[in-house]
Amino acid sequence: IQMSVMIRLLSHVSDGGCGVQKCIEMVTFCARHSMLAAARVAKCQELLDSVKSACLLPAMLAEDDDLSLPNKTEQKHIDAFEPSIAAMELLAVLCQSGKPIAQQLSRSGILSMLKQFLLAPTADGILGPRRDSQCEAAMQVWRICLVYGIDTDTSTTVLLQSPRLLPLTTTTVMSPGWR
Fold first, then answer.
1. Could you tell me where the DSSP H helices lie in 14-97?
2. DSSP 86-116
3. Which among 58, 86, 118, 150 would be 20 to 30 A from 13, CA to CA?
4. Distances from the Cα of 177 to the Cαs of 166, 168, 169, 173, in angstroms?
5. What is the pLDDT of residues 32-74, one digit of tens each?
6. Torsion over CA of 123, 134, 12 and 34, rounded to 10 degrees?
């Protein structure tokens, strides 16, 4: 697998949204082929850095912006959501391919970035469902890592601090059958 082609594509895509998303989806397709293909994708640090910078960081910055700004800014938020979800799907495929790859992603700091999506405040309006999709995608990756026993020490902190997960946690704890 020639990851240099995907790295070049990611660095030259100028639209920031759909083009980046399609590149990530192609890499995900390759990673789904086999454990060996997933391992090759995970070993390409430059590709993972590109995924961080082209998909996850813009979405995190969009989370931090004021959502009451004009439509142009709202469109920037929308454009940042889809590539971030595609990147999280790629990370889920990589983590599912084996515990060593999940550990490598944890050590690289990519998984700690995903926790920011779990901790992001909820949104109303057009951005609400997109943020929920981001949270679900981040939760899928994190859940895989928890099954492997990776990053279990911060699970309680994230569950108690997340505005989306706290109601689920307190409902479970308060239910009569929970012990």
1. 18-33, 35-43, 45-51, 57-64, 71-96
2. HHHHHHHHHHHT-HHHHHHHHHHTHHHHHHH
3. 118
4. 18, 15, 14, 9
5. 999 999 999 999 888 888 888 888 888 877 665 545 445 555 5
6. 180
Structure tokens at 71: 């439509």
Structure-model confidence comparison of residues 155 and 149, the more confident one: 149
* 3-state SS, residue 14: coil
A 10 A CB-CB count for 171 gives 10
* 9 vs 15, residue with greater confidence: 9
| pTM over the 0.85 mark | no
119-139 per-position pLDDT tens digit = 776 665 555 677 778 888 888
Give every CB contact of residue 89 below 8 A, 6+ residues apart in sequence: 24, 25, 28, 137
Predicted local confidence at residue 63, as pLDDT: 61
Q: Which residue, 137, 86, 93, 145, is CA-closest to 116?
A: 137
Nearest to 38 by CA among 110, 89, 114: 89
